[in-house]
Amino acid sequence: DIQMTQSPSSLSASIGDRVTITCRASQSIDYYLNWYQQKPGKAPKLLIFAASSFHSGVPSRFSGSGSGTDFTLTITSLQPEDFATYYCQQSYSSPPTFGGGTKVEVK
Amino acid sequence: QVQLQESGPGLVKPSETLSLTCTVSGGSINNYYWSWIRQPPGKGLEWIGHIYNSGSTNYNPSLKSRVSISEDTSRNRLSLRLSSVTAADTAVYYCARHSSPMTTLTIWGQGTLVTVSS
Fold first, then answer.
1. Helix (H, G, I), strand (E, B) or coil at B89
2. Residue A83 and residue A75: Cα distance in Å, rounded?
3. How many CB pairs under 8 A join A and B?
4. Which residues contact B65 (CB under 8 A, 6 or more apart)?
5. Cβ-count burial of B56 within 10 angstroms (0-12 exposed, 13-18 middle, 19+ buried)?
């Protein structure tokens, strides 16, 4: 299985901050990398697919980049509704695997 | 719009079989891939497997010997069965839709908590 490693596992930030979350794959996954947002008690929601493509309705303050083994999710100006846990997931090979998550908390 | 709703027993005894249903409304289950994913309390996400057009399934090797996913197209729903459960199978179970075997999970159900305990 391809291992997905996210960092940091948690971070504290303030409204308006720029936030960057990284995800590293144990082998090259080309651009087959998705990002999800999960709030407590809710299902994950797709934010970014294919490393940098926006899912429908996702605000433009979210962006994704990277290819191969190293990927980044950036939130350019953190909003109150962005406090959540973010997961990366590779869809390059089966089984699809997820990173351990990054919890974005209020500073 | 398409909505997914998981249902089933919230409590299952060890060694028994966990059975869940995902009912799809607002669209047909035909010609889409449907995955099951689980999340133990306070932990990360694990993909269980998927089904496509009833006849094609793909399971996580870590669960393959115990898992079965099926579709009921007449009722527009899919099912998950996980046998010989232990406490380690306690989790919120989600169903989700994707459009290709490349598992980009675009629509999720709300999830249902299953606790394995005697």
1. helix
2. 11
3. 49
4. none
5. exposed
CA distance B86 to B84: 7
Q: DSSP state, A30?
A: T
- Residues of chain B in contact with residue A1, where contact means CB-CB under 8 angstroms, are 61
Residues 30-59 of A with CB under 8 A from B: 32, 34, 36, 42-46, 49-50, 55
Could you say which DSSP state residue B75 is in?
T
Residue count of chain A: 107
Per-residue pLDDT tens, chain A, 107 aa: give them: 999 999 999 999 999 999 999 999 999 999 999 999 999 999 999 999 999 999 999 999 999 999 999 999 999 999 999 999 999 999 999 999 999 999 999 88
Contact A34 B108 (CB under 8 A): no
Pairing of strands A70-75, A62-67: antiparallel
Block residue for tokens 């308006």: A16
B55 touches chain A (CB under 8 A): no
B87 phi, psi to nearest 5 deg: -60, -25
Residue count of chain B:
118
Q: Which of B58, B61, B108 lies at the smallest CB-CB distance from A43?
A: B108
Chain B neighbors of A4, CB-CB under 8 A = none
Check the CA dihedral A27-B43-A86-A32 and report its sign: positive
